[in-house]
Amino acid sequence: MSRDDGDDGNSAYGRRAFKRSKAHFTDRITADGRDGWPVEAGRYRLVVSRACPWASRSLVSRRLLGLEDVLSLAVADPIQDDRSWRFTLDQDDRDPVLGIRYLSEAYDRREQDYPGGVSVPAIVDVPSGQLVTNDYQQLTLDLATEWTALHRDGAPDLYPHEHRDEIDEVMADVYEDVNNGVYRAGFATGQEEYEAACAGVFRRLELLTERLERQRYLVGDTITEADIRLFTTLVRFDAVYHGHFKCNRWKLTENRVLWGYIRDLYQTPGFGDTVDFDHIKRHYYQVHTGINPTRIVPLGPDLSGWLTPHHREELGGRPFGDGTPPGPVRPEERVRTAGTP
Q1: 190 touches 16 (CB < 8 A)
Q2: Taking all residues of the chain, what is their mean pLDDT, rounded to a whole number?
Q3: CA geometry: angle at 139 spanning 142 and 54, to 5°?
Q4: Dihedral, CA atoms, 338, 140, 67, 266, nearest 10 degrees?
Q5: SS3 of 130, please?
Q6: Could you give the residue numbers annotated as active site?
C-alpha cells in the first residue's frame, strides 16, 4: 500500500482501469535459505502499516504463529508524504532498530531506481538494512510453512497440506473479486468500470455468504490462510469500502452470515487485537485525495457491535485445530480495539 494509490505500492490508477502489479522484490526467506535468506530468529524486521489490508495479513499470521519474539515489528505512520511510508510514530521519527526515517531507504539499499512504489508489508534484513521482500502474496504463506521451526508451541497449521488446493482456489476468487475488487471499484474512472467491479464484489460476497452459512470457516473446520485474507478486507468494509470506495449495495452489518463470521474472527485472539480502526480510517480518507480531496475523516460507523455475540460456534469447528490460542499481545504492540474503552 503506498501513497494515494490505496494499494500495496504495486498498482496504478488514473485515466485507465485500476491495475495491480506483481511485487518486484520476490526473494523468499526459507528454512533452507535457497534464496540467500535463511530463516533466523532476530535477523529480520517486518514493516507494516495497520491501515493496509495486505500488511494486516502478516500481522495476523505473526500473532497466530507466535513469531513476535523472532520477527520484530515496525509500524509506519498511516499518513504518508511524498516519500511514502515513514516512521513518525517512533522517537525522533526513526525506526529504533533500522535507524531509518523512511521505508524507501531500505528499498534503496537493496536496489536503486527500482520499478514500482514503496510497499508494505516488507521484510528488511536488519544487519544489512536491505529490503528482502515485498511479496505480499507469498510472505504469509512462508511464515506458515517455512518458519515452522520458530513457531510457538500450539501454533495452528494455517496452510494444511490436505486442504491446499481448496484454499488456493478460494483465495484466488477472494483476491480477484473482493480483496482487489473493492479497489477496482474505488479507483474506477468510468461508470461501466465501476459498476462491473462493484457487481463483482457483491456477487462474490453473496457466494461466500452461501458457503459460510453452512460452515464456520472457509475451508475445513479450522482457521486457514483463506480466512485471514478475507478477514482483512471485510474488517474494513463498512468503515471505508462501503462509502469511500462506493461498494454500497449493502453494509456488512446488514448481512447476518458475514457479520457473524467477521465478528467471530475479530473476537478470536490474533485477529481483532491487530486491528486499528483509527489508522485505517485516517489513511484511506486522508491519503486518497483523488477520491476524497477534502481529507475529511467520517465519524462513523459505530464500532460498538464488534464484540457482541455471534453464535458461530454453533456451527462447530475448532479455531486453532489441535493447537492453542496465541498469548497476550505484547504491551508495545497493543492497539485500542473496537468495543474497548
Answers
A1: no
A2: 94
A3: 145
A4: 20
A5: strand
A6: 52, 183
